[in-house]
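Go through this one:
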Amino acid sequence: MSNPQKILLSGVKPTGRPHIGNYFGALKQFVDLQDEYESFIMIADYHALTSTADATVLRQDILDVAIDYLAIGLDPEKVVIFQQSAVPEHTELAWIFNCLTTMPYLARAHAYKDALAKNKEVNVGVFTYPLLMAADILLYDADVVPVGLDQKQHVEIARDTAEKFNRAFGEIFKLPEALVFDQVKTVIGLDGQKMSKSYRNTIPLFADERELKQLVMSIVTDSKGEKEPKNPEECNVFALHRFFSAKDLSDLKRRYVNGEIGYRESKEILFNNMNEYLAPLREKRRGIATDPGRVVEILRHGSEKARARASAKMETVRRAVGVSLR
């Protein structure tokens, strides 16, 4: 008898265009692991409501994320691609977790503390966001959750919540593990900070050739001349070469150190390599986007599969907490 596949759960908020940091930090891993795990990949549209208040924009963003998932190579025959809001058990379980979790505990969450440090007026959704994420994970008995190091706390909160529930009501939830890819380093943005939409320093994953070139040529560098030696470890352009210029990397490094290359030439090499890598994804996405009805049907089918599993889990939870009279 063969061992069942372990379960992987992850997702992306539909909040605008994905960038190459999203791709190398998460999306590519979803594709690489789809044969290894039973994967549930969601569009986290309820999470997006913490920062989105335009229904038209959100609807388009949800469809766009589904198209993005298919364009990067997620196979709906192997992966359950679904819409979070189509599975109401997520918010039902989050409410139960709200009733178990103290405010001082949630106040330690990084995202909430960061918002306070920036003097933002924090909505309740931002404050309780980690518990909805815990519900997302625990509903599916996820064994692993792929995250970057900066997101590892969310999995720790899910584990803490599962343990607290299990102590109160019995062994209902599996404790998930964070799947952190040590080989995936932070993708540097145009200004040298971590690539992030909030910093406005991103390179969109599906940018057309013209936009891609404009952005690559705008990467911030120091003022060293073409023939001056340069430290590749301190260069924002070279940081992106690591993802797109593997075949040229050792030669580029040598030329940097010996003062044999200027930043303009380095950017041109980066653009050519990046465009060669991204063009097939761009073209595939363009083709998928011509048939939005098929994309919606894939989402509907995936959401039905996800809900079947989530519904069974919630029935167990309801009996455990005492609200089910069966």
Q: What stands out?
A: The chain has a mean pLDDT of 95. The chain is about 55% helix and 10% strand. The radius of gyration is 22 Å.
